[in-house]
Amino acid sequence: MTLNLKKRVTVITYVLSLSGLAIVSSIVEILNISTDSSVPFILFRLLFLMLSVVLIAFNIQNVKLINSIDGLLFVAFVLMYTLRILLDTVFFTTPLRLPSYNYILFAYGVCFIPFIAFRFSQIKLFKREIVIALLVILLIASVFVLISVLDKIQSQEFRNGRLSNDKFSPIFLGHLGASLFVMSLYCFFSKLIDGNIYVKLVSILGIVVGMIVVIMAASRGPILSLIIVAAVYMFYYSSKKFFIYLFCVFAFGFIFSGEIFSFIDVSGSSAVRRLERMFDGEDESGSIRLDEWDGAIDQFVDSPLIGNSLEEQKYHFYPHNIYLEGFMSTGVIGGMPFIGLLLMAMYRAFKHIQYSSEYTWVALLFIQYAIASFFSGAIYSNGPYWYFMASVFSIGLPTRLVDSRIIFKRRLLKMYSRF
């Protein structure tokens, strides 16, 4: 009974981590609930936090942060970031964009407490259930999003040619589509789901719907992260079947390229135009973002030890790069543990992809959000980045890599004993 309950809570928590807010947003839009009402979103975040706490309680015997390097780095950063929040909201009157209490509530309620829940979740016991549930619910959430903005598509009322609604930005919705695409790509080729024709069919549909959402959202961060993640997966996945399917996809895209670009143009999506402006250096939003990065660097230089502020002070916004933000807000003392966590998680993620482990999907999703965090998001609200970083640490190193290291050490000891 306890194991079944733990499985349900784990699966539901993983599913809601990526698709929950999109489903709530779509329901609010479809039911015409007042856009001024934040009650549905507050209730959802409370539910997600409660699930995270329950997950921690289920695995309390394993929750030992200071017994691992990643746990120590996490604690070090959280302490410095908490100090920064207190300095900016309690001890000093630093001008901030949001009410003071929002920063501590978001940091702990959206990121830090769920990080602990995901870090010590028993994902290995329920990996197949989580993968299938994520695939199906991401697909449903993406379809809900498309339905909820169908009237805007028909009336050409895109916000600058980008799919969005009054609650969520094109960036958020673009990553929803990118995550669906990544999960669908993994499930289509995964040996974990091998032989299930229904999952294969859902995966094909997910690839199509995910790509449509990404194109309609027309946000560069999700597009670039999706391209890089797909390229990484293609580089390491050497299956002959994979390249046959890949050739078919490119052939299909080439044959129907005219229809595809016509669809993008007719739909009103500005994806192509935004990418063209980015490469031509004519993108105004990109220039503003570079100014924010410069401001973040200047603020770090002004106070390199403990940081300067939660937000970049010229635009009074987060700098749309959480790695710069880490140094800007917590200085070297907090920034180094933060980057240390990133590097450790990246190493493990790439090893899982290299060895084609059963947790490649975790690695791919983490890389997607890690790349996206170079262009958007804030430390205190970038939930998926924290969740899947924690998941990468939870699954450990690939079994084949660990076994090869053990064999190598035994060989060294054997050689040493001869002398």
TrEMBL record:
<feature type="transmembrane region" description="Helical">
    <location>
        <begin position="170"/>
        <end position="190"/>
    </location>
</feature>
<keyword id="KW-1133">Transmembrane helix</keyword>
<dbReference type="InterPro" id="IPR051533">
    <property type="entry name" value="WaaL-like"/>
</dbReference>
<protein>
    <submittedName>
        <fullName>O-antigen ligase</fullName>
    </submittedName>
</protein>
<feature type="domain" description="O-antigen ligase-related">
    <location>
        <begin position="206"/>
        <end position="338"/>
    </location>
</feature>
<keyword id="KW-0472">Membrane</keyword>
<feature type="transmembrane region" description="Helical">
    <location>
        <begin position="327"/>
        <end position="347"/>
    </location>
</feature>
<keyword id="KW-0812">Transmembrane</keyword>
<feature type="transmembrane region" description="Helical">
    <location>
        <begin position="39"/>
        <end position="60"/>
    </location>
</feature>
<feature type="transmembrane region" description="Helical">
    <location>
        <begin position="244"/>
        <end position="264"/>
    </location>
</feature>
<dbReference type="Pfam" id="PF04932">
    <property type="entry name" value="Wzy_C"/>
</dbReference>
<feature type="transmembrane region" description="Helical">
    <location>
        <begin position="197"/>
        <end position="215"/>
    </location>
</feature>
<feature type="transmembrane region" description="Helical">
    <location>
        <begin position="359"/>
        <end position="380"/>
    </location>
</feature>
<feature type="transmembrane region" description="Helical">
    <location>
        <begin position="386"/>
        <end position="408"/>
    </location>
</feature>
<keyword id="KW-0436">Ligase</keyword>
<feature type="transmembrane region" description="Helical">
    <location>
        <begin position="130"/>
        <end position="150"/>
    </location>
</feature>
<feature type="transmembrane region" description="Helical">
    <location>
        <begin position="72"/>
        <end position="94"/>
    </location>
</feature>
<feature type="transmembrane region" description="Helical">
    <location>
        <begin position="12"/>
        <end position="33"/>
    </location>
</feature>
<dbReference type="GO" id="GO:0016020">
    <property type="term" value="C:membrane"/>
</dbReference>
<dbReference type="InterPro" id="IPR007016">
    <property type="entry name" value="O-antigen_ligase-rel_domated"/>
</dbReference>
<dbReference type="GO" id="GO:0016874">
    <property type="term" value="F:ligase activity"/>
</dbReference>
<feature type="transmembrane region" description="Helical">
    <location>
        <begin position="100"/>
        <end position="118"/>
    </location>
</feature>
<feature type="transmembrane region" description="Helical">
    <location>
        <begin position="221"/>
        <end position="237"/>
    </location>
</feature>
